[in-house]
Amino acid sequence: MSLDIKKERGYLVVLSGPSGVGKGTIGAKMLEAHSDMCFSVSATTREIREGEKEGVNYFYKTKEEFEQMIANGEFLEYMQVFGKNYYGTPRGFVEEKLAGGMSVLLDIDVQGAMVVKKNYPDALLIFIAPPSLEELYRRLVGRGTETLEAVERRFAQAKTEFTYVNNYDFVVVNDDLAVAVQDVEAILRARELSSESYKEQVFGLLNKEAQEN
User: Fold this and answer.
1) Residue 95, exposed/middle/buried by CB under 10 A (0-12, 13-18, 19+)?
2) Is the dihedral of CA 24, 111, 154, 59 positive or negative?
3) Residue 62 pairs with which residues in a beta bridge?
4) What's residue 208's pLDDT?
5) Does residue 142 form part of some domain?
6) Which residues, in sequence order, are CB contacts of 131 under 8 Å at separation 6+?
7) pLDDT for 1
8) For the chain, how many structural domains are there in total?
9) Which of 101, 90, 80 is nearest to 40 (CA)?
10) pLDDT per residue over 134-191, tens digit each?
């Protein structure tokens, strides 16, 4: 009897790391390579922008709707930016995708990741790190999208984010993008092979074979 093992439930994968470390690029590579993985769609109270679509870019909510969702415990994590707009990860969307066999990718900051870990202990947390602080600073400056003052703020924030590394399941150093992507792929494969659902299926198949014999 062959063991035809299938993934019955998806995995919640969290990528975190300082700005400029390349986690967004790595996440995009993961989505390209895995048809059974989707990006988590967040809810927000900011206005919809031209070209954006409800349920694709964000779930657009009024402040009252968002705060009611908070009161109902409907977020895995949420934050309010500069005391204005809310952003959050709807628990219902994630649970629906996972139950359907789709893995869900979250690209969030370390504070949000810690909240997700508390609310969803089975989440797989991966910290994307730069090869050095000097290289991270070079990348931040090289983007050319912010003032030097803003770069200095992000760089200082990065040093704080590094203190959360021990709370993550894995750390991937993004020195070479192709290698970093391979490392994340290896982590996902290891998570898949260690899943409880796979173990249950193996024992179920072996028990079935024993009964038939």
Assistant:
1) middle
2) positive
3) none
4) 66
5) yes
6) 173, 174, 175
7) 45
8) 1
9) 90
10) 998 998 888 888 888 888 988 898 899 999 999 999 999 999 999 999 999 999 999 8
C-beta neighbour count of 64 within 10 angstroms? 9
Distance CA 112, CA 108 (A): 6
Contact present, 16 and 23 (Cβ < 8 Å): yes
Q: Which two tokens stand for residue 129?
A: 């790190």
Q: In the block, which residue shows the tokens 């290698």? A: 179
Within a domain: residue 120? yes
Comparing CA positions, the residue from 13, 64, 48 lying closest to residue 34 is 13
pLDDT at residue number 7: 63
* Residue 123 resides in a domain: yes
On whether residue 1 sits in a domain, the answer given is no
Mean pLDDT across the chain:
89
Q: What is the CATH number of the domain that holds 67?
A: 3.40.50.300
Q: Which residues form the domain of 156?
A: 12-212
pTM of the predicted model over 0.90: no
Token pair 């894995």 is found at: 170
